Amino acid sequence: MKKVTIIYWSGTGNTEMMAQAVKEGAEQGNTVKLLRVEDATQQDVAAADAVAFGCPSMGSEMLEEGYMEPFVASLQDVDFSGKTVALFGSYDWGDGQWMREWADRMKGYGANVIGEGLTIQLTPDADGLQECKALGATLGK
Ligand SMILES: Cc1cc2nc3c(=O)[nH]c(=O)nc-3n(C[C@H](O)[C@H](O)[C@H](O)COP(=O)(O)O)c2cc1C
């Protein structure tokens, strides 16, 4: 059994839908905690075997600046060795630059990032939610 923690920010609910589906996928045989970034601490990350972070593309291809950006910045002090990390988020008009930069940043912290991050345009459809569940399942293995 693994401890999986999912931490996300969502303004209009699209990334929140993704987070719920990642949770469903991760649940099989694991302990899963789903937290808004507003309620999360570094300790939630440090105590988990696997962590998923979700944030839409905001600003101009940036993480949300009020909560997610400072939280991610604070993670440079966390020991990521042996931890699997998944990234996900919704976007609209961009080409996924925010996610590429976020994945590189997490790799720089020593995290073992699954793939390149799961991006979905606006509201996830049934296929998109399935991809989120599959990501959760990978995270929980
Ligand atoms: C202030 C603001 C800035 C945004 N900037 C970008 C952007 O740079 N690139 C992009 O692809 N989408 C951008 N978007 C679109 C959001 O990523 C998109 O609406 C997403 O579905 C929001 O996810 P949420 O429902 O989880 O908040 C922006 C949206 C807002 C409100």
3D structure, described in words:
Low-potential electron donor to a number of redox enzymes. Keywords: Electron transport, Flavoprotein, FMN, Transport. This is Flavodoxin. With 141 residues, the protein is an alpha/beta fold. It has a single domain (3-139), classed as Flavodoxin domain (Rossmann fold, 3-Layer(aba) Sandwich). It has five helices and six strands, in the order E-H-E-H-E-H-E-H-E-E-H. Strands 1, 2, 3, 4, 5 and 6 form a six-stranded parallel beta sheet that branches. The longest helix is centred in the C-terminal third of the chain and has 14 residues, at 126-139. The radius of gyration is 13 Å and the shape is globular. Bound molecules: flavin mononucleotide (FMN). Flavin mononucleotide is lined by residues 10-16, 56-61, 90-94, 122.
